[in-house]
Design goal:
The chain is globular. α3 packs parallel to α4 and α5 packs across α6. About 2% of the residues have low confidence. It contains 9 helices and 13 strands. It has a single domain, classed as UDP-N-acetylmuramoyl-L-alanine:D-glutamate ligase, CATH 3.40.1190.20. It is an alpha/beta fold.
Length: 314
């Protein structure tokens, strides 16, 4: 087994900034039938690919982040948060043509009242940012034990980059894990593992899936179609389902105290990748990922889990 502290993982994808405005509600507005939130404090968390990175870093793994931010206050906050979590952010580039993606949540007593999104979705393909990222991968990728693509469909991940990452990972024997919101999973054919949720699996297979057996059959067929080593389906309150070349294994949920599911998928992919890169089997890695996701679902907002929390969790 390889110790977490000896691992090097690269996370590449769309970095989001989650802003939380928390307060109390004691009255209804006289202007309209809406709640009035008396703000008590504001806080920030990294979302998207940034949340994946904070999760790998929280486990003690050396983590390098590739992505983009806008030339604004939110972009600076992202860099500050990355530094706070000891994530190497030299690959986080500034794109002057877009604002940083910001999701603002208004919260009262651990309940989200409203979310406001601010973003400008624009692909970086054929830009200087893309050339810089591809050049970095050509020269540096071999030093990583695993690469995680965290694709929120905001423009950082594009077909040419997907092909390059796969080619380089195959060449250097690097684990390649994908969590994508792109409905076209065919473009990730040949990767080590893809981690769709139930809805994404239904979209990819164009099938309405109700029972675990149906989900397993669809996942098994998709794994074979995409020539993946593994397919890990996240099923919310039903846990996870892991497909390997010869079997399908359902892993029931390990946590019933669900406070906030925001970012639980990011935690799952982070822990699965770290365990797999450490030398654990795919099934054991999935079990640990399932346990970790259960722990963070009991926390507010995009959250992380430490190795101590992971190994002492019920």
């Amino acid at each position: 087994m390889k110790a977490f502290k000896d691992l090097k993982i690269l996370v590449i994808g769309d970095i989001l900034l989650d802003k939380y405005i928390e307060g109390t509600v004691t009255r209804i507005s006289p202007e309209a039938p809406i709640l009035i939130l008396d703000k008590t404090h504001t806080w920030y968390r990294l979302g998207g690919a940034g949340n994946v990175s904070t999760n790998t870093a929280a486990l003690g793994v050396y983590t390098f982040q590739i992505g983009r931010v806008g030339p604004d206050k939110e972009g600076k906050i992202i860099h500050t948060e990355l530094d706070k979590h000891k994530i190497n952010s030299m690959g986080v580039l500034c794109d002057v043509t877009i604002p940083t993606t910001l999701k603002t949540r208004f919260v009262c007593q651990h309940t989200q009242l409203l979310r406001v999104d601010e973003e400008d979705i624009k692909s970086i393909e054929h830009t200087e940012l893309a050339y810089s990222i591809e050049e970095y991968l050509d020269t540096e990728i071999q030093k990583y034990d695993a690469i995680i693509i965290s694709d929120y469909n905001k423009g950082v991940i594009y077909p040419g980059l997907i092909s390059k990452i796969l080619q380089l990972c195959k060449k250097h024997g690097i684990i390649s894990i994908v969590d994508t919101h792109n409905p076209n999973l065919d473009i990730f054919k040949g990767y080590t593992c893809i981690t769709p949720n139930k809805h994404e699996l239904e979209t990819a297979t164009q099938t309405k899936l109700t029972h675990i057996t149906d989900i397993g059959d669809a996942a098994y067929a998709l794994r074979k179609q995409l020539n993946l080593e593994y397919l890990l389906v996240t099923l919310s309150d039903q846990g996870m389902l892991l497909v390997t070349h010869d079997k399908t294994e359902h892993i029931p949920i390990s946590q019933t105290n669900v406070l906030d599911v925001t970012g639980c998928g990011d935690t799952a992919i982070a822990v699965f990748t770290v365990m797999l890169a450490s030398g654990y089997s795919a099934l054991d890695s999935a079990r640990w990922a399932n346990k970790a996701a259960g722990v963070v679902c009991g926390k507010m907002g995009t959250a992380t889990i430490t190795s101590e929390e992971l190994f002492t969790a019920d």
